[in-house]
UniProtKB/TrEMBL annotation:
InterPro entries, alphabetized: DUF2306_membrane
Region (Disordered): 1-38
Source domain of life: Bacteria
Keyword terms of this UniProt record: Membrane, Transmembrane, Transmembrane helix
Chain ranges passing through the membrane: 50-71, 83-103, 124-142, 148-168, 189-210, 222-243
Name recorded for this polypeptide: Putative membrane protein DUF2306
Taxonomic source organism: Pseudonocardia endophytica
Length: 258
């Protein structure tokens, strides 16, 4: 994602210069007329999936934020235990929304090719979105009072911070491929809120035949924590499969060193 975060370079610009010595895995050196290396899609190949993901992210973000615009505790879609809990929840949602919207932009080839823009968006994504959202998200999970939420959300929030740090460390070391992979994992965790809101209705529909006439909507609150946990597991699994397929096509080891 933010491949020029601390390096001042953009992987979207193809040059004929040799990459610095000491990186773990690098894109092969290419002249402007050479095709993209095996396993690394062309700019056009990445555009439409990213656009679709961006549209979904923007639409979902609007839906997530609207109930909290008026700062009405009673309008909260997530139960809160105190005024502090609600304030932290609002801060988490606002900052997470920044990450949700900015994340897809970092995968757009045209943005990655403009290293100054790419760097600014990447820093905003991490410093305005991911980091503060994760830091306030941990107490939000703990204050929920539900063990599954406390454990099931604290883990991805910590993972959010760890993958962000690993991505920054990779680009500082000049490892563009590892940086991109860690940012893919990072955005998979960012996308948790959207995936959870898809999984919960699906689980509701699946349990209808076994509800014995009871109102399925009554079980929504109990399914939300389950959906949240499944969401980050599903997202990371999908991204990991994509990363490994990408590495195989590029002739790189299926697993990269951390």
């Amino acid at each position: 994602m933010s491949n020029s975060y601390c390096a001042g370079r953009s992987p979207g610009v193809i040059t004929g210069r040799t990459t610095p010595v000491g990186s773990r895995h690098r894109l092969p050196d290419m002249t402007p007329t050479e095709p993209a290396p095996p396993g690394f899609r062309s700019a056009r190949g990445w555009t439409w999936p990213v656009v679709i993901m961006g549209v979904v992210a923007v639409g979902a973000t609007i839906a997530l934020v609207v109930p909290y615009v008026g700062l009405d505790v009673d309008a909260s879609r997530i139960p809160t235990t105190s005024t502090l809990h609600y304030a932290l929840l609002v801060a988490h949602i606002v900052t997470a929304s920044v990450a949700l919207v900015l994340g897809p932009l970092q995968f757009v080839p045209a943005v990655r090719a403009r290293r100054a823009v790419h760097r600014v968006i990447g820093r905003c994504y991490l410093l305005v979105g991911v980091v503060p959202s994760a830091l306030v998200g941990i107490p939000v999970a703990i204050l929920s009072g539900r063990l599954l939420t406390q454990v099931g959300l604290t883990i991805p929030f910590l993972g959010w911070l760890v993958t962000a740090w690993l991505a920054v460390r990779a680009i500082r070391g000049g490892d563009v491929v590892a940086h991109h992979e860690w940012m893919m994992r990072n955005y998979a965790l960012t996308f948790l809120a959207i995936t959870a809101r898809v999984l919960v209705p699906v689980m509701l529909v699946v349990q209808i035949p076994f509800s014995d006439g009871a109102d399925p909507a009554a079980g929504v609150s109990s399914l939300i924590p389950v959906g949240q946990v499944l969401a980050w597991i599903v997202n990371l699994t999908i991204v990991e499969v994509l990363i490994r397929r990408r590495r195989v096509r590029a002739g790189l080891p299926a697993r990269a060193a951390v």
